[in-house]
Give the backbone structure.
Amino acid sequence: NCVKLPGLSADRPVVFKFGVPYEAMMAELQRKSADIYRNNGVLAMLSRNAKIKRAPEHWSQAAKEKFDIIITFEARVFEAVVDDFVSSRSPVVFSPAFVFNLEIRDTHSDAAAGARIAVDLVEQLDASEDIETDIYGIVKDIEVKLRHSVFVVPVFF
């Protein structure tokens, strides 16, 4: 329902609505306590994200598009995306997509490493002549790199 960032204490995250630009988030956090958010890496993360897109997007808005591959980085997000396909929408064109979860801890260094593995996953899938045949070998390769299980579920648009 919202974007939660580490706050001044573990039990008090900073909360923003989806669609708030990363630049606005950075400005607010710098105003509140620039040193703390710089030291914990949140400002660097927001700056990196701002280079990719303007603002965080809620899945329900992005899901209007057709995707071949959907990657999540947290089990609860993976479950919500799969649940959206299973319970909230009926396939229209019966075109398959694969939802992957690469469980990545929400730290700057783990996110950077996870991003490299996600790129590797997408490159391997893109190089595949038959994803449905190759997918489990690709997943095994990624699991070795992550050192834990990768979940993948086919869904239909």
Remarks:
- The chain is about 50% helix and 20% strand.
